[in-house]
Amino acid sequence: MANKSKFQAIRGTRDLLPPETALWNRVEQTAHEVFTTFGFGEIRPPIFEPTELFARAVGGETDIVSKEMYSFPDHTLWGVEGQRTNIILRRPNFEDIRAVSLFVSQVDDFISQVDVALKAGEMPKTNDNDRALEQLRSGSDRISTFLVPSTAGLSEEQFKLTVAFIQDAAAALKFGDQVSLRPEATASVCRAYIEHNMQQLPQPVKLYYMGPMFRRERPQKGRYRQFYQIGAEILGGPDAPAIDAELIEMLMTFFDKCGLQGTELSINSIGHAADNCRRGYVARLKAELERVKDKLGADSQRRIETNPLRVLDSKLDHEQPIIEKLPRIADHLCDECKTHYAAVKHELELRGVIYRENWRLVRGLDYYMRTTFEITAQGLGSQNAVCGGGRYDGLVELLGGPPTKGIGFAIGEDRLILSLQESGKGAAPQGRDVYIAWMGERAYATAIRAAKDLRNAGFRVELPPTELKFGKALERASKLGSRFALILGDNEVQSGEWTLKNLATSEQQKLTEQALLDYLHGL
Ligand code: HAM
Predict the structure, then answer these.
(1) What pTM was estimated for this model as a whole?
(2) How far apart are CA 510 and CA 449, in angstroms?
(3) Interatomic CA distance for residues 354 and 343, integer angstroms
């Protein structure tokens, strides 16, 4: 018997359903409108990219890249890959001629499968793959000699070396690229900027995006494995502090238009990677952390080595007094970064943007420099950051493009929606304007026409697919939250005067079709 187990959405993913999706649409529409008024255009990058892109941009040591990405090899040669594993794991016995012969035929079969896949373009045709195939062929020739009795003078040592030679070649073959579902989109936007030569457009280029991102985090309120971001990036042009400030102004305008409450903007500058700036600070911080290492938890102890700045992010109660005494980056910025930071704050004040400085705001991705910022909102519990962003001059260059300034942010749309709902700004269930209660075949034809005309005029209409007694129809109409019922029976069709019932007041009136449209429009 077929297994009838129920399917459920995968842990950390969820269905977004009506009426909530109406709120999602409203938020996204607001983003389109606000961002357009600031001169941004929409970009829609793919949902998966080479793993290497994220490793390089976000940083191999970050939690996102080292633990949270959904990655998989992008090919369909599972059978051939299985053969490869088999070959790599075999330890054929030198003295067992049958085992040696089986190994040789497995290798030869594997070689011909790889050859076919390469010729068909199912495997990447790279120099490395060509070289590995050549090595496999010569290994196969060599090992065949162990099958011929006249060469019995060959040693077991030589046999083992030949097997290893073949196994190394098999392991070196690349069946396809390693790809990942995007954990964020800044890397993709920079990749696209380079790929489409956007440095030749008037600078800076201002782009925004919205869509799903994927991180294998421990799910909880406001934290999902598939979540949605609305983000914006400014690439190219100068690093004028006004750019940082205007981007943040746009963000706060957007939150305001959405009706988000209790927002708090925190800002910081983490300087740039130089000995007289962040690198010097990190060295001092590391030295300080080493001194208090014993008092820190395991995560922070590990981070002293991998990324000392991230220790400042710690939420552990017992670490707070220790962290408060650590050296602060603001005291170690170089003159240019210090001036830039002061100017960003001034530019924010010119725009009436209220901020709070937070020297511990370092962000969890490697590409940031100078300005970093985060916004929290109410009603979210521990996952209360609705937006994070910052400047990342140099990222485009790191990905193979020209030296380019950059700054951007990403809003966690799930959290934004949650916060709106918590403050009573959720969407109302989608009702209907008119429910058409019809009876009889002639009335049905009129009902279809009436539905079409009303919908064309922009009204939300429910036309029941089967005939219902008027009482039943009115009951359904109320359950669907309809404002009016349009009653169409033989009488109405004959007279051309339709009955419109207001379901809140129970008042009824007779109207021609045109008068009905005029009446509804006039409401
Ligand atoms: P991020 O801080 O990793 O930055 O993410 C931005 C926002 O996405 C967070 O503040 C949060 O609201 C939301 N978010 C992150 N992870 C989850 C999750 N698992 N579930 C729900 N919401 C989540 C970035 O992604 C950068 N790319 C931002 C940026 C753009 N910086 C410069 N340009």
Answers:
(1) 0.89
(2) 18
(3) 15
Secondary structure element (H or E) that encloses residue 142, with its range: helix 127-144
Identify any residues that bridge with 377 across adjacent strands, giving them in sequence order.
Answer: none
Residue-by-residue DSSP string for 290-349: HHHGGGS-HHHHHHHHH-GGGGGG---GGGHHHHHTS--GGGG--HHHHHHHHHHHHHHH
Distance between first and last Cα of the chain:
58
Show the ligand 1 pocket: residues with CB < 6 angstroms: 184, 186, 215, 217, 222-224, 227, 229, 231, 233, 365, 385-390, 408-410, 412, 414-415
Low-confidence stretches of the chain (pLDDT < 50) are: none
**To test ligand 1's pocket by mutation, which of 227, 251, 393 has the most ligand atoms within 8 angstroms of CB?**
227
State the pLDDT at residue 2: 56
Instruction: Return the ligand 1 atom nearest residue 185 CA.
Output: 27
Instruction: Answer yes or no: are the C-beta atoms of 245 and 349 closer than 8 Å.
Output: no
Tokens of 61: 């040591």
Ligand 1 atom 20 nearest Cα: 223
CA of 346 to the centre of ligand 1 (A): 26
SS3 359: coil
Q: Residue 350 class from Cβ within 10 Å (0-12 exposed, 13-18 middle, 19+ buried)?
A: exposed
For the chain, the farthest-separated pair of C-alpha atoms sits apart, in whole angstroms, at 110
pLDDT digits (tens, 9 = 90+) for 474-493: 999 999 999 999 999 999 99
Expressed in angstroms and rounded, the spacing between residue 402 Cα and the centre of ligand 1 is: 26
* Surface-to-core class of residue 442, CB atoms within 10 Å of its CB (0-12 exposed, 13-18 middle, 19+ buried): middle
240-256 b/e (C-beta count within 10 Å ≥ 16 → b)? ebbbbbbbbbbbbbbbe
**Alpha carbon of residue 417 to chain centroid:** 16
* Contact present, 247 and 348 (Cβ < 8 Å): no
Which ligand 1 atom is nearest residue 225's CA?
Answer: 19
Structure tokens of 173? 């073959």
Phi-psi region of 99 (alpha: psi -120 to 50; beta: other; left: phi over 0): alpha
Q: Which stretch of DSSP H or E encloses residue 105?
A: helix 97-119
Identify the pLDDT of residue 146: 83
Provide the pLDDT for residue 95. 85
Q: What is the pLDDT of residue 150?
A: 58
